[in-house]
Structure prediction request, 177 residues.
Amino acid sequence: MKKVTAIYPGSFDPPTNGHLDLIERGSKIFDELVVAILRNPEKDPLFSLSERRSMLEALTSEFHNVRVDTFDGLTVDYAARMKASAVLRGIRALSDYEYELQMALMNRKLQPKLETVFMMPAEQYSYLSSRLVREVAKLGGSIAGLVPEMVEQRLREKLEPALKLESARKSKTGKRA
Ligand code: PNS
Prediction:
């Protein structure tokens, strides 16, 4: 029987529990799932590509049919190189739909044989995004339960110096930290 490979492309800056939920669901329906981190020189990511890759590798090590890779250029070209027949994407709320529909239809235009498969993460992650996680963590809020403990720890290590500096600045200028 033909093996069905899917790619799960994204920025994963950082990986969240929503991403992992989707990876687990995807690993159950595809023979092989490649988590593909986009190498995007235009974006200024919080975590470097190698940091995101090593976090995702550690977080997905329990899934034997999941591997992590990086790519640049078009998703459809990368899918062809991987011999993938599907692209996995998550849809959280209605607000995701328009952007995802545009991408899926553009990808279909570029490569009609490649199917996009949408899956919904568990509802407790329906409001969760990497952007919000970065924003809350940068401002010193709790992100417990939203990202794996390893990611929480890495975020703390990365942001603690900046948070300490900001709190020292505020106490110097007499503002409450
Ligand atoms: O996690 P993100 O940032 O929502 O992922 C977006 C991603 C990586 C899936 C999208 O930007 C993408 O596919 N980029 C690769 C370039 C490409 O193929 N562009 C045309 C897609 S319609």
Remarks:
- The chain has a mean pLDDT of 93.
